[in-house]
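Kindly inspect this one:
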Amino acid sequence: MRDMDWPSFLLAGFAVLFIGVAKAGFGGGLGMLVTPLCVLAFGPKTAIGILLPLLCAGDAFSLYHYWRKWRAENLKFLLPGVVVGVVIGVQLVGKFSPRQLNIAIGLIAVLFVVFQFVKERIFRAEGVFAPNHSVGGPCGVGIGITSTFAHGAGPVAAMFLMPQRMPKEIFMGTSILLFAFVNWIKLPFFCLDRTLVDWPLFAPQALITSATLLVSAKFFPLVPLGVWLGVWLNRRFSERIFVRVIYACLLVTGLQLIFNFDLAAPFR
């Protein structure tokens, strides 16, 4: 794991704070900014391992605020596919170089921004969607794969949940409940590898190690602080302008991961 300088530490700190803010329902796609920022701070494989325990903590805190404000029946349509997608995802992560993972995570970030601009047009023409296994299975696989690669399955989940036309609070509660299950499903696959468990479904190398857990523990206090901040912001501020700023930041971060610009060149 690379040594942390102050810029990397601050970048990661803001990213972890954003976990809580996003889990509390403020900022739309703010949660999608978390992994790209941490990748810039830590590198792709290390960032993915550091973030999962923090995401699990964020789920626990945010479930308290949205308790029983969800449509739990969505889980039965999505979770079987999620398990398959996670298994596929952990196999693929070990086959990509750090540069290739950066590109994959950057592409997910950029495509998310594009999705935000077209989703209303896509779903406006559709009637109210009744969830089912034929759609939920493939969506679950997509959620599992993209969540394993970048903790970035929001767009795939939204494609299944948004057409159901839920009230905002129910949509948020359902999303939080879904990703709480997704993150706990990922946890054993991230902690164990084939050196510990001789089973081909596990990755060749664990993504969560004692070193990544130590870093996660250092940033943990920012998660409940972020959840509290998100709840407070939700009650007092409009998020429209804030969301646009977040999408711009996410787009720039995604492009940086894809093209690896030399940001220091103008200062030389």
Residues 263-268 have pLDDT under 50 and may be disordered.
